């Protein structure tokens, strides 16, 4: 159903930027400027300090017709060897409400379990109640409230046991 294209070059950056631009409502939660190709590049390459490069994954997710529907970013083995930290999941707003986000997460949870991960964590912006409800609806539980992220944003950290 979904194709996960691992982004390793800038070839797909224009498609990712177009998806970002259609979802400016998400970015407006944490920034006042428009999204740019430089931001796409930063998102593709940014990761926790001391994370092995092969453990940083950024995907453009498409349907069977290669239509971009989402982006997913995660770090394997962070903050510990058996945890995956999802840094970003954006389902294009033109596809929201169809259950695609839930299906993507379900596929990823199964994948993480199959490679020996035990937990999944995510930080949700404090001013994103829809995002918080989405992740809690999938069984993620808040383990830290009102924490400052590495970017300085106020977040809630959620965890899911596989």
TrEMBL record:
Specify the superkingdom.
Bacteria
- What keywords is this UniProt entry annotated with? Acyltransferase, Transferase
- Identify the InterPro entries for this entry: Acyl_CoA_acyltransferase, Bact_Acetyltransf, GNAT_dom
Species of origin? Pseudolactococcus raffinolactis
Q: SUPFAM superfamilies given for it?
A: Acyl-CoA N-acyltransferases (Nat) (SSF55729)
Q: Where is the N-acetyltransferase domain?
A: 5-162
Q: Which is one GO molecular function term here?
A: acyltransferase activity, transferring groups other than amino-acyl groups
Determine if Isomerase is one of this entry's keywords: no
- Asked if the Swiss-Prot or TrEMBL record annotates the protein with the keyword Transferase, the reply is yes
Query: What's the protein here called?
Result: GNAT family N-acetyltransferase
Q: Which Pfam families match?
A: Acetyltransf_1
